[in-house]
Amino acid sequence: xxxxxxxxxxxxxxxxxxxxxxxxxxxxxxxxxxxxxxxxxxxxxxxxxxxxxxxxxxxxxxxxxxxxxxxxxxxxxxxxxxxxxxxxxxxxxxxxxxxxxxxxxxxxxxxxxxxxxxxxxxxxxxxxxxxxxxxxxxxxxxxxxxxxxxxxxxxxxxxxxxxxxxxxxxxxxxxxxxxxxxxxxxxxxxxxxxxxxxxxxxxxxxxxxxxxxxxxx
Length: 217
What we know:
Elements (H helix, E strand, L loop, with lengths): L8 E5 L13 H6 L1 E4 L6 E4 L9 E3 L3 E4 L4 H13 L4 E5 L2 H13 L3 E3 L5 H20 L15 H5 L3 H13 L3 H20 L7 H12 L1
Parallel strand pairs: 6-7
Antiparallel strand pairs: 1-5, 1-6, 2-3, 3-4, 4-5
C-alpha cells in the first residue's frame, strides 16, 4: 500500500510563531514516533511503528498535515503547535478533524480559525476547562522554590496562558453581557501579563476568574 499523498487535514500557523522548524516537537512525541524524511517537500513523516505504511502526520514546518482525524492524532498536532508557540492556528480538512482541532486548540489556550463551533461544542469546551481546573485544584501544592529557580520562561510569556483560558470560561459563565465580558477579560489579560513579566506566580485559574469578575463589578 503506497503512502497517501492526498493529506487534506491540516493545522497551520496563522500568526506570530516562536518556531516553524521541522522536527521541533515535544519530547514525549519524539520518543513515541519514528520519523522519515519525505521527498519533494512533503515534509518529515511521523510513524507510530516501523511497519506502518502511512504516517500519522507530516511536519512541514509551518504546517502539520494528517490523514486521520481521531482525537489522539489531532491532540498531537495541537501539542506541537502549542510547543512551537503558535498563538493562532488555522485548521482545514474534514469537519470532524476541524472540530477536534478546535476543541483541543482552545483547551490548550490557542485561538483557532477555520471552524465555527456549535452551541454543543462550546458546552463541551467549558466542560473540559472546568475538569482541567478541578484537576489543578486537587494537585498538592508544591513547595515554593527560590525566585531564581522559578523565573518565568520566555515561552511562558510568548504563549497564551492556559490559566487565562480557564478563567475566561468562568467569566463568560458568570457575566452575560458581551461588552462587560470583553472589558473584564481585557483587564484580566493585562494583569496576567504584568504578573508574568515580574516573574510572579498567578493564582489558580478558578480563583483568578472569580476575582476578575468581582474586581470589575
